[in-house]
Amino acid sequence: MPDIFNSAQGCQFTSEDFTGVLKAHGIQISMDGKGRWMDNVFIERLWCSLKYEEVYLKAYNTVAHAQQSIESG
Question: What angle do CA 44, 40, 46 make, to 5 degrees?
């Protein structure tokens, strides 16, 4: 279990249903400031590249096949 959960401030992350689960497990909550789009640029580019240069081109039949192909790079 993580010690700290970091997220954006979207309604899905600030709802009592979501934060209550974290609190019940003793997990600290950290949220990025509003308008911090630059914080996510690297990870958004990574996922975009992975989807368009790997996943969409190869149309995997199983999750195991996808993992194996992505790991072998």
Answer: 25
Tokens coding 62: 């199983």
Q: Which residues of 50-67 are buried (b: 16+ CB within 10 A; e: fewer)?
A: eeeeeeeeeeeeeeeeee
Is the pTM above the cut of 0.70?
Answer: no
Q: Sorting pLDDT into bands at 50, 70 and 90, what band is 36?
A: low
Confidence of residue 42 (pLDDT cuts 50, 70, 90): confident
